[in-house]
Amino acid sequence: MAAHCSPRGEDRGSLRGAMREWWLHVGLICVPLLAVYLHVPPPRLSPALHGWHSAGGSFAFRGSSVFYRESFGAVGSSDVVILLHGFPTSSYDWNKIWEPLNQRFNRVVALDFLGFGFSDKPHRYSIFEQASVVEALVAHLGLSDHRVNILSHDYGDTVALELLYRSDQKRSGHLTINSLCLSNGGIFPETHYPRLLQKVLKDSSFLSPLLTRLINFPLFSRGSVWGGWVGLGDSVV
Which residue from 5, 46, 66, 160 puts its CA 20 to 30 A from 172's CA? Predict the structure, then answer.
């Protein structure tokens, strides 16, 4: 008597076969990437980045080291500006306008958020935690009683809005904000379409280290993650 196979059993067998084939493809992709990751040294810092790092400092936040840079500029002014960078970059975003800002403000401060730049990368991060990092830096620098100006970009816009909310609600540890300038960023989730590079760096736990090891400046700059000072339109609160 001929054996009878149900359509459901055939479907299950086909699904198992497809899954095995899918994992085989994943392995064929990941094995050479892992080999490259283990044998290719990390990119060397440029002289400009070496200088940026040497001119900065760090402070401890909940057991992690956070990098920041601070300089004193305009004499006779008490204005302080805090610069919040975007994703997936660092405080070095501001290097080309650092000196012009020094000519306008008495104190210019920038930091690398947790997980970015020269700051530690201990775990996943939230916007709320990054806002607390900024508040901790302000306290560390003795600026808690100052009215500060905030200039933000991209990811930093969202952190700045959380800081604005805390300031408005008089939350403990909040900043006293004098002005807030938001440059282009994904303020409205329904109109925000991140690039593929940003999605992979944010959501992929095993591809992110590989990409950061392999990527270079020409590849990174081709992604155009820095959009200058236009887009959503700058606003001052």
Answer: 66
**Cα–Cα distance measured from residue 165 to residue 104, given in angstroms and rounded to the nearest whole number:** 27
Give the E-state strand segments of the chain in sequence order: 57-61, 64-72, 80-84, 107-111, 147-152, 176-182, 235-236
What is the C-alpha to C-alpha distance for residues 18 and 37, in angstroms, rounded to an integer? 29
pLDDT attached to residue 232? 31
Place of tokens 């530690």: 120
- Could you tell me which residues come within 8 angstroms of residue 197 by beta carbon, excluding any fewer than 6 positions away? 88, 211, 220, 223, 225
Query: 211-236 pLDDT, tens per residue?
Result: 666 666 666 666 554 443 333 333 33
Q: Determine the pLDDT at residue 228.
A: 39
Tokens 């000519």 locate to: 103
Answer for the pair 73, 104: CB distance below 8 angstroms, yes or no: yes
pTM as predicted: 0.70
